[in-house]
Amino acid sequence: MKASLIALLFPLLFVSTSVWASSAPALDLTHSTVGYACLIIFAIAYTLVMLEEVLQLRKSKPVLLAAGIIWAILGYVYSQNGIAEQAHAALEHNLLEYAELLLFLLVAMTYINAMEERNLFDALQAWMVGKGFNFKTLFWLTGILAFFISPIADNLTTALLMCAVVMKVAGDNKRFVNIACINIVIAANAGGAFSPFGDITTLMVWQAGHVAFSEFMPLFIPSVVNYVVPAVIMSFFVPNTQPNTIHQHIELKRGARRIVGLFILTIMTAVAFHAVLHFPPVVGMMMGLAYLQFFGFYLRKTLRASLTRKAAMAIANRDDLALKRLGSVVPFDVFRRVSHAEWDTLLFFYGVVMCVGGLSLLGYLGMASEIMYTQWDPIWANVMVGILSAIVDNIPVMFAVLTMDPALSMGNWLLVTLTAGVGGSLLSIGSAAGVALMGAAHGQYTFFGHLKWAPVIGLGYIASILVHLWLNGGMF
User: Fold this and answer.
1) Which ranges of the chain have pLDDT less than 50?
2) Residues 6+ apart with CB under 8 A from 406
């Protein structure tokens, strides 16, 4: 009875990068009224998160409230027992873990927003539309690009970019939009699984020190298999007909390509801080933000000279459209790019970390860890983590695993990184990419439209695990 109860509650416990659950909590409150109350509060909050599209309630709101209530309860209980300093230390530890990830993601989002503002993604979209590809070619092209862009730009941004292309070329062909969006979600999640920058889950594993930057590469082939297997099957249901498209020329703004170069340099700086100096990668990322700030300063200072030169060329060529574009130029502002970061996601991240940091202090993650990683084979436990990530979302799932801090081999750490990353593709609500595309392609890409392809996606999930076990068996 107890085991079945824990199995039912287990998905609700997934969240936080701290290692507090790896040691016994000062107070075991797992069977207390306080413990049950905190579980119920978190369950209600996460239910509201899952109903975000229905309720039109931003997902950060319920978890922020739940986090405050849970820690208020913990603070009162620990104060009553005369050990308030232990709860305070646990709270500070969780805040530190969150702060590192917040700053890291903030810099990455700022760079992506800067590239978007410089028309880099619009230019890519216009190029694809202007080539006159048929539906089947677009299906494969958007999927392959999603797979290879997501390791750098993260799976959420990549999925939204490719979805914009699909929506632009598909017109009223809802069937193509649905199957193309499914393909994009699978590709973006698979591509993000073998790179620390491809998904928040892989970033957390890297920052926690369980897998070094170069050690993610053994997941490349399993990730390819995870994408290709369902994509090949789905491609037979994509028509070869030509979409009706209108080509639109998009001109890159000044500095677009150089910002891409600075982003690559920022990634290299973060890796160097982590691998060479053994500092958190966030230190290198914040240094990379300085690169962008100085470049923004250069763009602003040289704007007048650049506009004068381009205006003279436009007048000489009698290009009225070029003159009109120059009249609407807005100086580059780094802090405006920071303000465009996905703050709802970042605040949701905080709420989730703090909620399950509290549940960890109550002792629930230690209980779940005992069952999954002691009584079960770690391989089966990690496979189950991927399945749960389709229901609960892969970010909180990976938080829970890192909170448990089980003693795993490198092969198993790579396996749980793979399953948590690609398991979210099984359902549309299982990853940030899927949830975002349900909003971007509202009414065309739906939960049930994705669900009918779940068995095919499941084949890719199983195949990728088997390939990993076969190719990287020596790591277990």
Assistant:
1) 1-25, 323-324, 326-328
2) 369, 372, 373, 378, 381
CA angle 90, 352, 425 (to 5 degrees): 135
Tell me how far apart the alpha carbons of residues 235 and 238 are, in angstroms, rounded to a whole number. 5
pTM metric for this prediction: 0.68
Inter-residue long-range contacts of 469-475, CB under 8 Å, 24+ positions, other chains counted: 469/379, 469/415, 471/218, 471/221, 471/222, 472/218, 472/411, 472/414, 473/411, 474/411, 475/218, 475/409, 475/410, 475/411, 475/414
Element (H, E) at 330: none
Range of the domain at 271: 255-328
Asked if the structure places residue 308 within a domain, the reply is yes
3-state helix, strand, coil in the chain (%, to 5): 80, 0, 20
Nearby residues of 58 by Cβ (< 8 Å), 6 or more positions away: 52, 344
Is position 316 within any domain? Answer: yes
State the DSSP string of 96-142.
Answer: HHHHHHHHHHHHHHHHHHHHHHTTHHHHHHHHHHHTT--HHHHHHHH
| Angstrom distances, CA of residue 402 to CA of 86, 98, 160, 414 | 20, 13, 28, 13
- What's the confidence (pLDDT) of residue 223? 94
Q: Is residue 287 part of a domain?
A: yes
| Per-residue model confidence (pLDDT) at position 171 | 64
Query: What is the model's pLDDT at position 8?
Result: 32
- What integer pLDDT is reported at residue 342 of this predicted model? 67
Structure letter (DSSP) for residue 217: G
